[in-house]
Amino acid sequence: MLNSCEGKSVVVTGASKGIGKGIAAVFARHGAKVLVVARNLEQADACASELRAGGGQVSAFGGDVTKRSDMDEMTRVAVERNGGIDILCANAGIFPQSKLEDMSGADWDTVLSTNVKGMHFSIQATLPALKRSRCGRIVLTSSITGPVTGFPGWAHYGASKAAQLGFMRTACIELAKYGITINAVLPGNIKTEGLADLGADYERTMAASIPLKRLGTVDDIGYAAMFLASDQAGYITGQTLIVDGGQTLPESLEALNQA
Ligand code: NAP
Fold first, then answer.
1. Would you say the CB of residue 187 lies under 6 angstroms from ligand 1?
2. What DSSP line would sit under 114-136, residue for residue?
């Protein structure tokens, strides 16, 4: 039973909906003090009050991961409200689609600055508090798209998700002397508001390509994040955990259909 997050202070970026909300909900259910972060404060507040109604100790902060000053203020608020920061879930990310022939410099900058620079800013800003924790944990939300698979329209997104892992493999060495671990969850296709924007056809064809024959839930990712953040995972650092219902494994459609 993983109960080591009880009483810990957890910051989850990109948590007003989708996977981040799922991660926040799992930690809150297990007794952590959670700060839900998103640009839209009203939505972050609505998420926090929904999670509080389920018994969690949750509050909201309106901030943009691409702005270092917002991340500094987020850290100050988390420390003031929750007594420090033990766990950062750097989850905020965007996945607009654009075929590479049409992809503009602005498209690249938007995706890379949120998914990679924003991740870095959130880590850099929370680092002093994570060091004080003495058992600091960072959990990144990467993706199967990029590090393992590809999908048309997501060359920039895939590059950003692979970049997170390149960052992690050096960060884990730099952070080890503080007792801080950093690991990444690689979700497959998870039912979120952001994914719903891609349309019903996308969801249907994706579900058909997954051995477990369903999209993942935000809880599936929340529990993986909670494991990587637990005391029991204290010797795991710089590693990836794919949570995809087996989607990356079939060699062909035939392999799927024969199963
Ligand atoms: P989502 O439903 O669109 O939710 C995204 C969340 O991030 C929202 O709370 C959004 O709120 C926040 N956000 C976006 N830009 C931000 C910024 N600059 N600063 C702070 N918060 C920001 O997305 P999701 O599907 O849950 O995806 C979350 C993460 O999982 C992303 O990193 C994504 O790459 C990864 N992922 C998702 C899937 C999937 O199948 N859904 C699969 C693999 C990986 P505001 O707009 O108010 O800021």
1. yes
2. IIIIHHHHHHHHHHHHHHHHSS-
- 146 CB under 6 A from ligand 1? no
Tens-digit pLDDT profile for residues 215-245: 999 999 999 999 999 999 999 999 999 999 9
List domains and CATH numbers for the chain. 2-244 (3.40.50.720)
* Side chain identity at residue 133, one-letter code: S
Phi, psi of 9 (to 5 degrees): -100, 125
- Alpha carbons 68 and 94: distance in angstroms, whole number: 18
pLDDT tens, 32-86? 999 999 999 999 999 999 999 988 899 999 999 999 999 999 999 999 999 999 9
> Is-contact 195 151, C-beta < 8 A?
no
For residues 3 and 31, the answer to whether their CB atoms sit within 8 Å is: yes
Q: Please tell me the distance from the alpha carbon of residue 167 to that of residue 171, in angstroms, as a whole number.
A: 6
CA of 212 to the centre of ligand 1 (A): 24
Report the C-alpha gap between 148 and 115 in whole angstroms. 17
Of the candidates 245, 218, 96, 123, which has an alpha carbon nearest to the alpha carbon of residue 178?
A: 123
Q: Are 35 and 81 in contact (CB under 8 A)?
A: yes
Q: What is the pTM of this model?
A: 0.98
